[in-house]
Amino acid sequence: MMQFCEMPCSDESYQQIYESFQGLKHPLILTPGDNDWRDCSDPLGRLASLRSRFFSTSRSLGKTTIPLTRQSAPYVENARWTKGNVVFATLNVPGLLVRSVATAPDGRSLTFLANSTPDHRTPFEERWAGWFVTGSPGGLRHLGNATIADAHLPTAAATPATSPLATMQGRFDATGYLSPHSDVAAHLVFAHQMHMVNLLTRVGWQTRVARADQGAEAARATAAALAGDFVDYLLFVDEPRLPAPVKGASGFAERFRLRCVNCGRVRNVGHGTARCVGVSAILAPAAVTRRRSSWPTNAPSAMHSRASWAANISAALK
Questions:
Q1: CA atoms of 239 and 18, how far apart (whole Å)
Q2: Which residues, 6+ apart, have CB-to-CB distance to 205 below 8 Å?
Q3: Containing domain of residue 63, as a range?
Q4: What is the pLDDT of residues 79-129, one digit of tens each?
Q5: Which range is most confident: 61-65, 70-74, 87-91?
Q6: How many CB atoms neighbour CB 160 within 10 A?
Q7: pLDDT tens profile 222-244
Q8: Of 67, 89, 111, at which residue does a domain stop?
Q9: HEC profile for the chain?
């Protein structure tokens, strides 16, 4: 809200936006973004101001309103409502995302040609639109390193291609940047890390809410229900197979590996081997792409089985 309006974090800005929303013909249900309060100099004060201004009633914003069921104070910005046979909900839990958006030569976003929020499960053909990708991608077809010259042509499309790029030097003035690289290895790690952080946030948040609203037993059940998805993502379940090794040109992978404890160790997970979670696991095409149904319930090494990981994480969250 604040980011797109390019307005300061102030009560005056909030009031101006509130009045604009109230003038809309149709119902509007708002959920705050991190730019609306978390990135302000006084985040908790800003959040309190948002709550008192935008979420003080049990109805939506707009000239025509609809009823909402709000969470109890102080989390009144979280709401649910029903339309037909569908229940909708908002949840104010700021997270992180990576965007893949087709781009014009002048930098404009062309969301109607390619627009996704990829993580490590996303097909490579849908990743990195609007990004430079440097290094050797190992034959990966992706949407990086390309712009759409004329988005209004009937034939305009964001087409995956294998487009190696050693460095961004010569593409633009990189003087003010930390590196002339946009390393393919860093892209792969970044996509995994962003959603991993969101899952950590989700597990912690929902467990704490369950404990506050329903008690310790509900918190334990919530943690147990969420642990499976958490562990699946942690262990790269459903990651597309790399056709060949990828290699960056910036030294990122080497530096990352030095900071990772035991990244080179191979551990038994039941059906063969997989590397510890780290850059090796992300860049190695030999690692088997696992589906949820393929995880064994009786792995030879119970410590590293999916069920054991999930149980350990669930216990830690109790």
A1: 42
A2: 93
A3: 2-89
A4: 999 999 999 999 888 778 889 999 998 888 888 888 899 999 999 999 999
A5: 61-65
A6: 19
A7: 988 888 888 999 989 899 988 88
A8: 89
A9: CHHHHCCCCCHHHHHHHHHHHHCCCCCECCCCCHHHCCCCCCHHHHHHHHHHHHCCCCECECCCCCECEECCCCCCCCEEEEECCEEEECCCCCCCCCCEECECCCCCECCCCCEECCCCCCCHHHCCCCCCCEEECCCCCECCCCCCCCCCCCCCCCCCECCCECCCECCECCCCCCCCCCEHHHHHHHHHHHHHHHHHHHHHHHHHHHHHHHCHHHHHHHHHHHHHHHHHHHCCCCCCCCCCCCECCCCHHHHHHHHCCCCCCEEECCCCEEECCCHHHHHCCCCCCCCHHHCCCCCCCHHHCHHHHHHHHHHHCC
Task: Give Cβ neighbours of residue 218 (< 8 Å, ≥ 6 apart).
Answer: 210, 211
In a domain, 201, yes or no: yes
| 305 and 189 share one domain | yes
What is the distance between the alpha carbons of residues 58 and 36, in angstroms, rounded to a whole number?
21
* Beta-strand pair 100-101/115-116: antiparallel
Has residue 205 been placed in a domain? yes
Of 68, 89, 110, the position where a domain reaches its end is: 89
Could you identify the residue written with the tokens 């959603």?
195
Give domain status of residue 191, yes or no.
yes
What pTM was computed for the model? Answer: 0.67
Classify residue 85: in a domain, yes or no. yes
Per the model's pLDDT, the better-predicted residue between 88 and 178 turns out to be: 88
Position 310 confidence tier, pLDDT thresholds 50, 70, 90: low
The total number of structural domains that make up the chain? 2
